[in-house]
Structures are given as structure tokens and as C-alpha cells.
Structure to design on (336 residues):
């Protein structure tokens, strides 16, 4: 059990260890890769293999968090692959449903099993890392001295790799240059200094975002308020397998609504006075009023209606959240 004063253990029954090959000497690794998974055992094998194929001299370990304990297919797939690897690894079932709960379970396990690790690296089960991924991310952390390093998630589309979708606002990376940046927005490809997790306290991600998404953005915002620093590594990108349904109007609209909901909820949590709440509501109304013009300008620029609808959907999602209506896109994860 972790003895750090700010890290309270999870509730009994939240985490089950399915398999581990960790010896006493393996506990002294420099870095731990955590991979949350939910009902994607086939792609998980591809993701995990890309991690095992890393060309690095750094000693690292792997933690797999299967968030569908009812069948444990992800855990079984991971164990089957890891049994033939010399990389120290632990496979757990994260019993509390939701992506924030899965991340919390994995990060807690990583800190408990590998107490000397300097970093935790996250990759999702629909992503594929290039062979220098770990070194690229850790080198950026060392160069900048930052607590968090983010990198692109390059969408690989099923519809013949049509490149036009990559420029849609929901797929574009937030930065195009490397080095220090104000903040990050995604946990799908990020390096985290363990000292930041130890100082911030468990649970790190707020489970109110479990099915909405945005628990990572909320966490970064809270960390920044107490001095956390961030950087961006353009060459540390991973390839994200993107189903054709994610280029359909219904999914893109839902994602834009969700993004608006997330921004409103994060600001709502940060509010400390009645004035803060009034300002947030006024901001939501102003964004909604401006959104038709912004959408028109985007349509003039792109000539693509699905792109142009994004500003209006984001603004509408913000306003709906103000009245308690959240677009929980991850509630139906198999449609996401």
C-alpha cells in the first residue's frame, strides 16, 4: 500500500490484480506505461505490442487496466501477450466503470508497484506508438523540466484514409510547435511526472467526468492552479485508429456538444463566488450568440458543413450544461 499522505487507497474491491510478473528488482523502474482498455481486446494487442517494441535503454514497466471486468477479455489478451515478454507488467481489473475511474486505478497501481518511477506514460487502447515514443516524450520532459508532456494523436481513418477529416476541429492537435505550453487537454498520449501525482492526491481524475470525458482537462486545470507546468512534443505522436462512424455528422455533432459541456463543467467547478457563476453564464450566452457568425466564417473557409457546425454545437453544449444537461458521449462507449 502507498504510504504517501495525500494518496488514499481506493475502496476495497475497486481493483483486482489478474496477473503480474513483477519481481522485487523490477520495482525500481524509471517509467510506467499505463493502458486503459474497454471491450477492444484485438486492438489492445496491437497497442501493447507497439509499447513492447520500444527502442529505448530506459527500464520501463506496463500496467493494463481492463474496465470491463464482466468478461475480462482485455485482461486475458494482455496477459497472453505479456507472458512471452521480459517487460515487467501488471494486469488489473478496474471495477468502477468509466474512463476516469480506470485511469485512477491504473495510476494508483503504477505508484504502488513501482514506487521509484519518475514518470507515468499513458496510451489508449486504440492507439499505436512509434518505436522511439518513450524516449521522445521523456527527453522533452527532461529538456523543459515540465510536469506533463503531451503529444499528438494522429487519426488514421477507415474511410480510405481521407485526409480532410484530420483538419476538423475535434481532431486537430492544440499546438503545432514543441516546448512549453500553457496547458494540455487530453490524456490519450501524455507523460506525467509521478511527483505531481504524489503531491496532488488520489483520486486524480474527478469521476463526474467518467462518461462525459474531460476529466483530464479538469485535472490539468486544477494542477495548473497550484503551479504545474506543461510541454508539447510534436514528434511524440501516436496513430489513433479512427472508425468510420467518427466521420459521420451525428458523431461529430455529439463530440462538439460534449466539448462544450466539458468547458462549462470545468469552469463551474472552479467558480468560488456568485459573481463567477454569473460571468460563466454570461460567457456561455455570448458564445452562443457569436456562434452563427463563427460557423459562417468557418464554412466560408472550409466549404464543409460538418466543420462549420462545430462552433454552434460547442456553444450549445456549454449552455445545456448550465442547465444540467450533459452530453455523456462515453455512456455508450461501443458507439464512440
Amino acid at each position: 500500500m502507498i504510504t504517501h499522505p495525500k494518496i488514499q487507497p481506493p475502496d476495497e474491491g475497486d481493483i483486482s490484480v489478474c496477473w503480474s510478473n513483477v519481481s522485487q528488482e523490477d520495482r525500481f523502474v524509471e517509467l510506467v506505461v499505463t493502458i486503459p482498455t474497454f471491450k477492444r481486446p484485438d486492438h489492445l494487442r496491437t497497442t501493447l505490442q507497439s509499447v513492447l517494441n520500444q527502442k529505448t535503454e530506459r527500464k520501463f514497466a506496463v500496467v493494463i487496466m481492463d474496465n470491463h471486468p464482466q468478461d475480462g477479455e482485455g485482461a486475458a489478451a494482455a496477459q497472453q501477450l505479456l507472458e512471452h515478454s521480459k517487460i515487467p507488467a501488471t494486469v488489473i481489473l478496474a471495477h468502477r466503470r468509466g474512463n476516469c475511474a480506470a485511469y485512477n486505478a491504473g495510476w494508483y497501481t503504477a505508484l504502488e508497484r513501482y514506487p521509484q518511477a519518475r514518470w507515468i506514460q499513458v496510451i489508449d487502447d486504440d492507439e499505436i506508438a512509434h518505436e522511439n515514443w518513450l524516449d521522445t516524450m521523456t527527453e522533452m520532459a527532461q529538456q523543459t523540466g515540465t510536469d506533463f508532456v503531451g503529444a499528438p494523436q494522429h487519426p488514421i481513418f477507415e474511410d480510405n484514409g481521407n485526409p480532410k477529416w484530420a483538419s476538423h476541429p475535434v481532431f486537430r492537435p492544440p499546438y503545432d510547435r514543441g516546448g512549453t505550453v500553457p496547458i494540455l487537454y487530453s490524456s490519450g498520449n501524455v507523460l506525467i511526472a509521478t511527483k505531481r501525482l504524489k503531491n496532488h492526491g488520489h483520486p486524480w481524475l474527478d469521476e463526474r467526468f467518467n462518461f462525459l470525458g474531460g476529466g483530464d482537462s479538469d485535472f490539468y486545470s486544477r494542477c495548473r492552479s497550484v503551479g504545474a507546468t506543461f510541454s508539447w512534443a510534436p514528434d511524440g505522436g501516436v496513430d489513433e485508429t479512427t472508425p468510420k462512424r467518427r466521420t459521420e455528422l451525428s458523431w461529430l455533432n455529439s463530440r462538439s456538444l460534449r466539448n462544450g459541456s466539458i468547458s462549462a463543467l470545468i469552469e463551474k467547478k472552479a467558480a468560488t463566488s456568485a459573481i463567477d457563476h454569473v460571468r460563466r453564464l454570461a460567457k456561455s450566452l455570448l458564445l452562443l450568440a457569436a456562434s452563427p457568425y463563427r460557423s459562417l466564417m468557418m464554412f466560408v473557409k472550409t466549404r464543409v458543413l460538418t466543420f462549420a457546425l462545430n462552433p454552434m454545437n460547442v456553444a450549445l453544449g456549454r449552455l445545456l450544461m448550465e442547465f444540467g444537461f450533459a452530453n455523456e458521449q462515453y455512456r455508450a462507449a461501443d458507439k464512440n
User: Anything to note?
Assistant: The chain has a mean pLDDT of 90. The chain is about 40% helix and 15% strand.
